[in-house]
Amino acid sequence: MNGVHSGTARTGLKDDSSDYYPVALTRESLRPGVVFADPYGHTLIIIRWIPQSEGHPGTLLSVDAQPDGTVGIKRFWKGNFLFTTSEVIGDPGFKAFRPILNKDGHPFLLSNSELNSNSGFTSFSLEQKGLAGESFYHTMERIINPKPLDPETALLDLVQALYEQLLVRITSVNVGENYMKSHPGAIVPMPSSAAGVFQTGGQWEDYSTPNRDLRLLIAMDAVLDFPDKVVRSPQDFRISMLQSPEKVRSNLKTLLSLKLTELSVTYIRTNGSEQKLTIADIIQRREAFEMGYNPNDGIEIRWGAPENSEERLTCHRHVPPGQLQTMKSVRTWFSKRLHPPT
């Protein structure tokens, strides 16, 4: 009891007796059932591949669960799958469950060396050991989309992924809001250290959203950076010989501005009224999301309503002063888009 949790998937890549073992970053190895152990304790499980087709990007789908009881389908992209091998505890990455065989009535685990191409199981691989984040994402993007993508199609797919992430946040924030409404005057205890804020137990883990909001900020960055990414790596995209990468970037920025104003989410304010926010609105106030994860704040603050705005006038719940000081000290992690080792 309490001996297995999401962080236990970060087993050492060379460990022969672990429940998981690392696999190669190939379409054949990344099969449904393979686990992704992120560097900070979250876990996702591959469930389905949707192959790339003419006019439609490929998609790798996974399932994950959150402490608030929500279970969701998540696509692979930088906003959902965090990967780094620097300053982390344990070894993250894609891993398969180690096979258990039976010999003379006794179960035994296959060792890493036995998990080879002749074993009948997915082969052991150290490809992910020490791999840089950008190399990891580039490799995965080429696996999911073997053919160069039309840059506009790729951008729209990224915007859709960000939109899906915001829809999930609606549910996550509402879970905390419903708890606070049903317990008037309650204060959810907050850890005093940065590591504790990002990974702990109890009510804080159930109702706060620091990890998810950090991912959301990284997702916003990825969308905003995409036009420049095309210029940096034009070979990864299907670009007409008649267009320069710089012209494509300009067109993409125009398309992005249009699309960000078309898509919107709606949350319910403290007074019961609906508040509609376009993705452009949310990106414009993204700095507020560095401080929007505490369930002791009213929902308007959690969605980044500016101070003294009409939207924020209905907010009547604020974090205690001591928690606010802790949040200010932790904010540097969000600003740098980094996670303290946990």
What's the short version?
By secondary structure, the chain is α+β, with helices and mostly antiparallel strands. It has two domains: 6-131, no CATH class; 151-335, no CATH class.
Write up this protein.
The structure is a single chain. 35% of the residues lie in helices and 14% in strands. It is α+β, with helices and mostly antiparallel strands and 342 residues long. It has 2 domains: 6-131, no CATH class; 151-335, no CATH class. The mean pLDDT is 93.
- Quaternary state reads single chain
Structural class: alpha+beta
Give the ordered list of helices and strands.
Answer: EEEEEEEEHHHHHHEEHHH
Helix-residue proportion: 25-40%
Number of helices: 9
Strand order across the biggest sheet?
1-6-2-3-4-5
The figure for the number of domains is 2
What is the CA-atom radius of gyration, in angstroms? 22 Å
**Total beta-strand segments:** 10
Distance between the termini: 21 Å
The coarse silhouette is globular
User: What does the largest sheet look like?
Assistant: 6 strands, antiparallel
User: What would the average pLDDT be, to the nearest integer?
Assistant: 93
Strand content: 5-15%
What are the segments in which pLDDT stays under 50 over at least 5 consecutive residues? none
